[in-house]
Amino acid sequence: MDVNAACYNHPDRPATNGCWRCQQFICNDCSTTLFGKTYCKKCAGEVSKISHNPDKSNLLQREINSRPLMVAIIIITILIAAVEIYIMTR
Length: 90
Ligand SMILES: [Zn+2]
Ligand SMILES: [Zn+2]
Known about the structure:
The protein folds into two domains: 1-52, no CATH class; 54-90. 52% of the residues lie in helices and 13% in strands. It contains two helices and four strands, in the order E-E-E-E-H-H. Residues 19, 21-22, 24, 39-40, 42-43 line the site of one zinc ion (ZN).
């Protein structure tokens, strides 16, 4: 870490930590440890909010997981259409 970095919230204080989520430099007073990782106050609030609402994070995870499948279906559909057009125009 850059030793000259100052805290994001306190420009007069040297940063002792970096937020794991937003990579912001933070001093000891501003850092919060959650699940073994250091976060700034803002991210700690959001991380704990997500973990207190497992349904919402599961839904988000499912949405991310289903995306490559959606892309694959679209590509296959386009390929089938392209082959059909190629056969018809031959
Ligand atoms: Zn943060
Ligand atoms: Zn600070």
